[in-house]
Amino acid sequence: MPKICGKILKISVVIVKKYGLDLYSQCPIIIDQNLFIYILYLHLPKIRNVMEKLKKRWGITSNWQIIAILIVFAINGSFAAWVAGPITNFLGLTAETTKPYFLYIVLRIILIFPIYQITLPLVGWVFGQFTFFWNFEKKMLQRMGLGRFFK
Fold it and tell me: Fewer CB near the terminus (10 Å): N or C of the chain?
């Protein structure tokens, strides 16, 4: 067992003994925190390796930029799906009125795609990553055959 995990386990045992806790029934959070820290410790070199590869691939210099970019992707995906709801309702496309239900899902996904593309640079701008996402959009649209609109 690595040194740091051994120290964490010792600290947890001291806490359990000091407060007279039954480790498994009264305080499962101690086990969860130890497990999380242990897993993080084991995978930290892999996480660093992935982040270095992303920095090289995307041409960025800091780990904070990677974190901001991943947060933008997450927020924008949720935002695009949320915005698609009122638009589908405005167009009269609801799960109850569109049969079969599969057709409603397909139409909603088709609607979410352009919303996502439009809002990605905007959400990126909020996080200070507009240049990255604008270049990302241009590259993706060029791969889809729509690059002639951005020359």
Answer: C
DSSP letter (8 states) at residue 100? S
Measure the CA angle with vertex 108, ends 106 and 111; round to 5°.
110
Dihedral sign computed on CA atoms, order 6, 10, 12, 16:
positive
Q: Mind listing the pLDDT tens digit for each residue in 66-99?
A: 889 989 999 999 999 899 888 888 888 888 888 8
What one-character DSSP code corresponds to residue 150?
G
CB 94 within 8 A of CB 146: no
Q: How far, in Å, are 1, 21, 46, 54, 119 from residue 70 at the CA level?
A: 32, 39, 17, 11, 15
Cα angle 47, 131, 71 (rounded to 5 degrees) comes to: 40
Cβ burial, residue 28 (10 Å; 0-12/13-18/19+):
exposed
- Token digits for 25? 């029934």
Averaged over 1-29, what is the pLDDT?
56
C-alpha to C-alpha distances, 56 to 67, 85, 98, nearest whole angstrom: 15, 37, 46
Q: Which helix (H) or strand (E) holds 113?
A: helix 101-126
Is the pTM higher than 0.85? The answer reads: no
